[in-house]
Amino acid sequence: MNDQAQRLREQIQEKTTGRSTRLVAVTSGKGGVGKSNVTLNFALGLIEKGQKVLLFDVDLGLANLDVLMGITPKKNLMHLLEDDKTIFDIIEKGPNGLEFIAGGSGFTQFSQLEEWQLGKVFTELTKLQGYADVILFDTGAGITKESLQFILAADEILLVTTPEPPAITDAYAMMKVVHMKKPDAKIKLVINRATSTQEGEQTAEKLTVVAEKFLGFRASTLGMLPDDQHVSKAVKQQRPFIIAFPYSPAAKGIRQLVSTFCGTDEKRVQFVDQTGLKGFLTRLRKWM
Ligand SMILES: Nc1ncnc2c1ncn2[C@@H]1O[C@H](COP(=O)(O)OP(=O)(O)OP(=O)(O)O)[C@@H](O)[C@H]1O
Ligand SMILES: [Mg+2]
User: Fold this and answer.
1) I need a labelling partner for 8 at 20 to 30 A (CA). Which of 24, 87, 168, 220 fits?
2) 32 CA from centroid of ligand 1 (Å)
3) What is the pLDDT of residues 170-180, one digit of tens each?
4) In a domain, 213, yes or no
5) Contact 231 CB / ligand 1 (< 6 Å)
6) Does some domain include residue 177?
């Protein structure tokens, strides 16, 4: 690395120290419910609000955030294992200043890595502390060991479901597993593809009531997104819908989610400051 690049990097790190980073995992019980679209557009919505966001595709097997942005990443998590690469070398640029780390093929399991490789990944991940206001992890669907690691390690979990019964059932199963392993997990529901406000509210209500009754815990609801044909149109154009159709119902829904998410700031200070990325990594190791 040349001197100039080194200096720039040091400046970046200097500028960002002291910022607390909110670590958020986005997940779902059932696949295909809109997790990646929600994550990507939510990230862009946060950027609209002036937040610095890093998006991390941790759907290690089937990474596809890049496809939704029409980008072919040159670097991914796998490249971290090369001697001279740091975490800052593998950050890709997306639209509107979005930064992201691609999952990449060949990197299917953290648990398959050798100890020194894992050590390097963790050391590099620690450097992200203070780098962004929010780090969002798009995890794979369902209760796999890999996605659970990230879900349990994050400060907050956005659990995406649609109003369809199989999606609700699987969301409940996910809540149950998370709650069993981490009773104080902060789960926030996102109801995607609601055909009416009433349907969205009823879906959220069903899940929160069942969780309270059978698990004895309260999940909160972050909000809902309407079923909107602009989402599919944007996917086909490989552009995030909040950019391709900024006034669409889905884009408006995302901005509403972002407002609610940012409005809960006072709650985060307590637990983010206590744990931060170090805590996240400790928890990540614990669940391996
Ligand atoms: N709000 C919405 N309105 C209409 N269609 C939607 C909406 N959200 C998602 N979709 C449709 O669902 C498809 C799948 O979305 P996405 O890829 O985000 O799901 P996913 O949960 O990430 O899937 P996977 O589990 O495979 O990672 C999209 O391509 C789009 O066609
Ligand atoms: Mg996905």
Assistant:
1) 24
2) 5
3) 999 999 999 99
4) yes
5) yes
6) yes
Residue 146: domain span: 23-286
Q: Is residue 225 part of a domain?
A: yes
Would 1 be classed as within a structural domain? no
Ligand 1 atom nearest to CA at 40:
18
> How many whole angstroms from 23 Cα to the centroid of ligand 1?
22
Question: Residues with Cβ within 5 Å of ion ligand 2?
Answer: 35-36
Sheet holding 53-57, edge to edge: 92-93, 99-101, 53-57, 134-138, 22-28, 156-161, 187-194, 220-226
- Angle (CA) 62-187-252 rounded to 5° is 75
* pTM for this predicted structure: 0.87
CATH number of the domain enclosing 84? 3.40.50.300
Protein residue closest via CA to atom 8 of ligand 1: 34
Count of domains for the chain: 1
**Is the confidence at residue 14, as pLDDT, over 50?**
no
Query: Sign of the C-alpha dihedral, residues 170, 191, 228, 260?
Result: negative
Average pLDDT over residues 121-126: 82
